Records
---
Amino acid sequence: MSAGGPGGVRSAGRRLRDSLVGFALNSGFSYTLLAIFMGLLAGAVILLITGFNPLQAYYVLFSGILGSFKNVMYTVQYATPIIFTGLSVTFAFKTGLFNIGAEGQYIMGSITALMVSVLVPLPPGIHGAVCILAGGLAGALLGGIAGALKAFKGIHEVIVTIMLNWIAFYLSNFIVMSPAFKKPNSTATVDISDTSRIFTNAFRGVLGVVKVHWGTLLALAAVLACAVILNKTTLGFRLRAVGFNRDAAEYGGIPVARSIVTSMGISGFLAGLGGAGQVLGVVGRVTQLAAQEGYGFDGISVSMIGGISPAGSLLAGLFYGGMKYGGSKLNMIGAPSELVNVIIGVIIYSIAVMGAFRALVRFFTAKKEGRPL
């Protein structure tokens, strides 16, 4: 049969079908794009029902993200802390652990960085680095506690980290309102020391009030470091082995308990860095919290949207930060900014549903081809 005949066409069709199925099975990125489309579609439907023009609303939303260099930098600023918390959740999940405590670890990083800034006088440059390190270590301590209870007492990390979130929340409020740190006639602390600030005014003429800080570069370095540790080092192999099969890892001589504590400690360190960077680079103080700020919980969404990978967490963090910042512009046309939360929620649910669909496709494909399920 010639290549141009019916047989050739059918053969080419089968190859195309197999290529598309293979791409669908092996490319998590394609599922993420589809989930984002579903979220935007759901948002458009809601806008239509409530009497708004979806095209106009989305133009305002994305202009608020990409309409100017200043808007892009605001997006980066919004994204930086949730890139850290997304990395935190991703690192733990890659090693078989579910860190719900990034919120508390973030809070501990924030308040610890402020305490070191106020109480420990140091020269500029060194001061900021020490405060960031202290914030990261505070988050690591909180994560390490959850890891130790998991490793040595068998207490599930989800339960422990949820409880630790509230301990961090109330401890932060106690410190904020203590005489040593409370600003008079305020529900916030005194400002951090000028020598510990990590933002630069080099771009003030271009960006105006936008504070560009070194925490953004630190987030990029953290993404690279996580990717290298997980995929290119013995430590990463051991941590992933414990997450994949704890009994097999123990049989292979890997110290399981130490690996669990290490993983949760690194995860907490990343979230703590996010909190420290936000205090030293953006807000400059810590306020009394009426409710948890949500950076750690946003990190769970970022990790899922990013396909549980370091690079994905970076891209998803930028997307999430952009949606949060751009969403605030929807008020210009009278549309509620809460629409962004609906879109993000639909994206998360779509990823979960498509994950199940992906598993079904794998099952039926393997069954049809006679491969082991």
---
Amino acid sequence: MFKIQMSRRDFIMKTVTGAAGIVAAPYLTLNVFAKGKDKPIRIAVEFNSHAVPAYVAIDKRMYEAEGLNFTTYKSYATGASLAAGLTRDDIDAAYICLIPAMNLYANAGVPIKVLCGTHLYGYGLAVNPEKVHSVKDLNNPNIRIGGLGEGTSVDIIIHKTIERFDLDEKAILSRVRRMSPPKVIFAVKADQLDAVFLPEHWLTMTEQYNFSIMLTARDLWPNMIGSVLIARDSLIKENPEIAEALVKATINATGWMKNNYDESAKLAAHYLSFESSKTPLADTIENKGELKVSGDYIARSMKNLDYINTVEIEEVQKTIDYVAGLGNIRRHFSAKDILDLRFLKRG
């Protein structure tokens, strides 16, 4: 019997390319047409409250206002599964967490550019308060820990927590059960986990099962960039007016959301509810009726993010440097290589 050992970087590479069991969820067929053009623009989002501006833009017809005919969209359970879709040329533009986008660019060689930001923060640690009284308690070998896959933004938050609180890195990483957000929630409900690292809105959802949020990304990494709007180089070069329209719609949706906070939360809850006809992931999750999400939960979740469209080059470079230091990407690169912010400046 031969045992194949895989390095952390190779594992992340396989996760990005879809070869490590990360499966993109089925989706509604998306066609976003630019006015006067026959080619559909294929757009995807992550299935969480990071994508509230996208849901607002869809519902309030802000893409149409910028000359794009938006009918349906692709939705992926995690940034890693969305990144896998991008490697297959299934997607032209996406709202995705910055870190899996960087993995995609550096490890899989997919030619993409960041056009604007959508939010800061959006990740954290939730615990069973009866078993975990302080972050240091994570060192206890009896504490069962859940989280997402290696190389994800959530994984970076795990590393930041270990560094900040001087925890036992090897012992903790060996105990992290890595799974999709819905599976983490089910494990919490079944009392199989005591502490979980998750993205929003899943992090806030754990409160339904008497967990409490102990740390957020805001506590661990000031100005941490959460998600961004990206597009393929080919789309930007061939149709810069489409890239500009996507950025403008995103900026308009973010502004509307900030001025209509509660309504935005209710709207997003409709898109994130497994009972909604607008939920593309509904048929992929067992016992989906137990994953109910209300506008109140989404509103509370949204408060753990700062929705902002500007992108600071220095912060992108800090993220690249940190991810490279962990060995998650094959090559170090300049932030300028992955940024195209000219449309943001016009917006």
---
Amino acid sequence: MTRYGFVIPTYNEAEYIGRTIESIANQQDEQGRPIPRDQYEIVIADAPAEDDTARVVAATAVKFPGLRCTVVTETARSMVIPRNTGIDYLLDQPTPAQYIVSGDADTIFPPTWLTTVEKETRRGATVVSTAGFFEADFWRRCPALTRRYTEHVGTVFFPQSIVDSHVREEERPLFTEQVFRDFGRPVSDCALVIEAQTYRQLDGFRPGYYDGAGTHEIPAVGWPFMFRAEFADIDIAYVRTPEYETSARRMLHEPEALFSGSCYTGEIENYRSENHDQHAVLDHFADRLDMAPLRRYVVKNYLLQQCITRPERVNQNAAYFGDVAAELAERIAAWRADHTQAVTREIFAFADELTDQFLHPVLELAAERALA
């Protein structure tokens, strides 16, 4: 019986998809023995393009006898529809998968990832959020950027290996992985596990939109699904280790989009023309990056937004909010009373409002803890 069905949308992913499939096919138990391949299946929801993604999928899968790896075609350019096409394929099989794993084409699953998830599902978890970060090699090759993050944001974006090797023992960063243990980790499209029955109960993944007209799609499936699960009082288990790795390609190739408030954006193209090492390019400008938007991102998405769907987190984590905890709890309670059927864009908008109001006191308290 298939317990886990991996669904991975692809579009021009020939460069990455082979590594992802190999990482799934090489899953092991705690004793290092291969997990029987009849326990899982991989479905690639491919939007045909100009590269050879389908050929790479076939060439990789044949290396692993018994691996079930199917390519289904979905031409819709959407974050949600291809994933749904792959999931529908899995759930329509004579023996459908018991758990859906939403993955990305550049995600590397560590060898005991599935074994660790299995422990949570056997304990009764129906939705599992797992920890993952940009590949450790990215941070190693960008030491100035790593130091900049450490000093101005914290280690919340770092895998443990980078924390161990690049953060001094006496340092007290603003935000660390403790945030996820206290507030829960927002689920990621990269490695989200959902029991099939719970997936159906919540009516699966649905497109979400930033606008009421439904023309500007929210490029994620995990956040909207998480909101609906938490509003339905479904607990989300958080697995800290082992950490999956994902490519830092967007950080490397589109840094202007991620650091739009930084002063280097007008110069980067000229510098790139002289240096084709993207890691070196990014690291060259590290000391001039504006980290304020990233601090805001952490406070908004990892603290305040997590309290909208689970208001009890305010009191459970009062140390993060200090004197404004009661006011924050009141604002959330009033909003919840007026938004009993809130959609994702409304949650995002309210989280922005909360961040406008509470960002500075939260950051001040975080700085005090770091100096304590």
